[in-house]
Amino acid sequence: MWQRGQVVSASTAYMLTDLMEDVVTIGTGASLSRWFTGQAVVGKTGTTNDEKDLTFVGYTPYYTAGIWLGYDQPKRLTYASREHINIWGNIMSDVHADLPYKDFEETTTGYILATVCSTSGMTPTSSCTTHTDYFRPEHLTDLYCTAHSSTRICSASNKLPTSYCPSSSIVYRSGNYSAASTGYCHVHTAESSYTAPAVTAPTTVLPEVEEETWLDEVLETITPEVPVEAPANEQSSSVTYEEYDPNTLLKPGITIPALPTTSEPTSTPEPVAAPVTPVVTPEPEPIVVVPEPVVVVPEPEPFVPSADDTVDFFIPQ
After folding, report:
1. What is the pTM of this model?
2. What is the pLDDT of residues 252-268, one digit of tens each?
3. Percent helix, percent strand, percent coil in the chain, to nearest 5
4. Rounded to an integer, what distance in angstroms lies between the CA atom of residue 28 and that of residue 84?
5. Mapping DSSP to helix (H, G, I), strand (E, B) and coil, where does residue 112 land?
6. φ, ψ for residue 70 (rounded to 5)?
7. Which of 141, 178, 298, 317 has a CA-to-CA distance to 310 between 20 and 30 Å?
8. Which residues touch 74 (CB under 8 Å, ≥6 apart)?
9. Which run of H or of E encompasses 64?
């Protein structure tokens, strides 16, 4: 005896409805919009091997209907791949003709709306293509997608870095790194944070250089006052200085070496060009052509055999 009861929860039923909505919008049942409009609808198409049977089961917030198309004796349905959807749409259009529009009731109890990586289903990174939908909490993970990116970790602990980890210890690695699976770095903490040792530049001590004073000693020995003769004529502006031996102005024991004397440059006489003797080229002697002697070769005399030759030899004539 049949007993009436709830088979699935309301939230599970809504999740199935949300999934099958793609079938009639972008999937194998997208052609339904040609024959059925004006109501929210979802469904699922189906077929058997060799396309001998075609089915479609769909429902609206009001009614549920299913259709089967095929032969009593199964054979391939070559030109009827969408005819069953056409029939379903026309029948359901008549059934819903006088009914107001109604949408499916959204029930998400026990589900949460989340965005995941479309490829891995994990927590997405900036490199992932994402998909937002309702999921059961136990089906989600806080691990970042390992298919499209890497994670920052501290190389000293191989865990997630904290604010105390120095930048020199931060590296990028691919793998499952999260607060739940690996935790945070335990090496660099507030109490024992890593501090890079201070680098002290080497100090270079330069040797002291003794100041040379020999020039001052020489200058002290020179008498600055030099006596000069009074001008012979008051109106003349020329002044005549007496010549002094510089050695008399120095203290005893100090002498200034005399500068080497230079002789006045002597003029070098310009070279005299030697007389040019003209060169007389003799005229060439005339060429005398001596004719070659003509030698006349006499023609050879004909051979006349002797009497002895005719006896011993036969000479053809």
Report:
1. 0.43
2. 555 555 555 555 555 66
3. 20, 15, 70
4. 12
5. strand
6. 175, -175
7. 298
8. 52, 53
9. strand 64-70
